[in-house]
Write a structure and sequence with these properties.
The protein has 1 helix and 5 strands; from the N terminus they run ββαβββ. The chain is mainly beta and 85 residues long. The chain has a 5-stranded mixed β-sheet, with helices on one face. It is globular, with a radius of gyration of 13 Å.
C-alpha cells in the first residue's frame, strides 16, 4: 500500500526509565500532509477503540499538529504534520 510520501521515526525507550515490552516501549511517528484529513478518514475505526486511546488532532507546542493512537499492543502511533505559520 502506498500513501503520500512517508517518513517514519521509530523511537525506543531503554534503560531503567524504559516501559515494559508492549507498554509504549516503541513510538512510531508518521509524517503526513494533512492530519485532519487522515483523522476524518480513520474516525469510524478510531471510534471503536477504547476511550482514551485516541488523542487529537491537536497542535503541539513544538510545532507539530498530531493525532496520537495507542495501538492494541500498547505501542504509540503518532501521525503529525508541521504547523506552517
Amino acid at each position: 500500500m502506498q500513501r503520500e510520501t512517508v517518513g517514519f521515526r521509530i523511537l525506543q525507550q531503554t534503560g531503567d526509565d524504559g516501559a515494559p515490552p508492549g507498554n509504549r516501549r516503541f513510538a512510531y511517528y508518521i509524517d503526513v500532509r494533512d492530519v485532519d484529513q487522515l483523522y476524518a478518514e480513520l474516525k469510524p475505526k478510531l471510534d471503536k477503540l477504547p476511550k482514551g486511546d485516541v488523542y487529537g488532532p491537536v497542535d503541539q507546542s513544538y510545532g507539530q499538529r498530531e493525532l496520537l493512537v495507542l495501538a492494541p499492543d500498547g505501542n504509540l502511533l503518532a501521525f503529525g504534520q508541521a504547523i506552517v505559520k
